[in-house]
């Protein structure tokens, strides 16, 4: 099995915020500075879903021989306490799903929402219903969709396991965020991964082994968070991930 690496564009959110990197600079950077072929685009770098702009992104990916491993969508979470906002989020997410087809994304992440220790029955029922609908759409169009265990109610591993079991659809998966604990509870549903700096510093091999043992076939993605010295910090994380993959299976693509 050829193991694959990607770099999350959120890793450069400091440069992006300073207007020193846009999505096109990101693609150029990962392909020619880091020699990576897996793109992992945070929608904070996609200011519009206008067809002309998406066409420029698609051309940029193709010109650099990049695959869109993940489209990471913040914003239209499934549950919001405001019913009107929930409906607006639902419609907005359908547009992102359509964009995923056009950009040939392999996975798309959208958060469930909720900030308490557990979801209420009302919240859970709606979240499951929405993910089942999104997963059917994704499956019919050749990609996967699902949440990420990185904030709110999603932070609890038992919640994620329960959600995966309830959605129960081949078009559904989890973006496993390696910073929290308990990832082994939902590792078999992993569709993509985010590996943070502190994991690379302290516990990289055992964390990655959770997915390896679950027969994970997705991309191993660098995600840096500090917004400082991003070029160098990403280099360090990427090198450590590549070294671990090489130790297992030889050089990663």
Low confidence ranges: none
Q: How do the strands of the widest beta sheet line up side by side?
A: 5-4-3-2-1-8
- Shape designation: globular
Strand content: 15-25%
Largest sheet: 6 strands, parallel
What structural class results from the helix and strand content? Answer: alpha/beta
> What order do the helices and strands follow?
EHHEHEHEHEHEEHHEH
- Whole-angstrom Rg: 17 Å
Total strands: the figure is 8
Textual characterization of the structure:
- The structure is a single chain.
- The chain is of the alpha/beta class and 253 residues long.
- Helix content is 46%, strand content 15%.
- The protein has helices spanning 13-17, 23-32, 51-63, 83-103, 121-140, 157-167, 197-202, 204-213, 230-249; strands spanning 4-8, 38-42, 67-73, 107-110, 144-146, 174-178, 190-195, 219-222.
- The strands form 2 sheets. It has a 6-stranded parallel sheet with strand order 5-4-3-2-1-8.
- β3 (67-73), α4 and β4 form a beta-alpha-beta unit.
- α4 (83-103) packs parallel to α5 (121-140).
- The longest helix is centred in the middle third of the chain and has 21 residues, at 83-103.
List the helices and strands and how they pair.
Blueprint: E1 4-8, H1 13-17, H2 23-32, E2 38-42, H3 51-63, E3 67-73, H4 83-103, E4 107-110, H5 121-140, E5 144-146, H6 157-167, E6 174-178, E7 190-195, H7 197-202, H8 204-213, E8 219-222, H9 230-249
Parallel strand pairs: 1-2, 1-8, 2-3, 3-4, 4-5, 6-7
Helix pairs in contact: 4-5
């Amino acid at each position: 099995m050829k193991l694959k690496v990607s770099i999350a564009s959120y890793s450069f959110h400091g440069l992006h915020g300073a207007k020193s990197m846009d999505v096109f600079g990101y693609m150029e950077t990962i392909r020619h500075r880091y020699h990576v072929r897996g793109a992992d685009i945070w929608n904070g770098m996609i200011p519009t879903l206008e067809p002309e702009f998406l066409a420029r992104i698609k051309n940029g990916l193709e010109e650099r021989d990049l695959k869109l491993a993940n489209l990471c969508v913040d914003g239209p979470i499934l549950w919001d306490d405001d019913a009107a906002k929930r409906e607006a989020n639902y419609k907005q997410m359908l547009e992102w799903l359509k964009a995923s087809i056009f950009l040939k994304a392999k996975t798309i992440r959208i958060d469930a929402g909720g900030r308490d220790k557990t979801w209420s029955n009302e919240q859970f029922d709606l979240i499951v219903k929405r993910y089942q609908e999104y997963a059917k759409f994704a499956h019919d169009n050749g990609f996967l969709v699902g949440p990420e265990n990185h904030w709110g109610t999603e932070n609890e591993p038992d919640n994620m396991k329960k959600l995966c079991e309830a959605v129960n659809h081949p078009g559904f998966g989890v973006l496993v965020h390696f910073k929290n604990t308990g990832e082994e509870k939902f590792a078999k549903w992993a569709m993509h991964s985010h590996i943070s700096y502190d994991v690379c510093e302290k516990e990289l091999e055992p964390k990655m082994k959770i997915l390896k043992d679950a027969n994970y076939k997705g991309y191993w993605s660098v995600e840096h968070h500090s917004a400082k010295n991003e070029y160098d910090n990403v280099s360090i994380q990427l090198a450590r991930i590549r070294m671990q993959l090489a130790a297992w299976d030889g050089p990663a693509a």
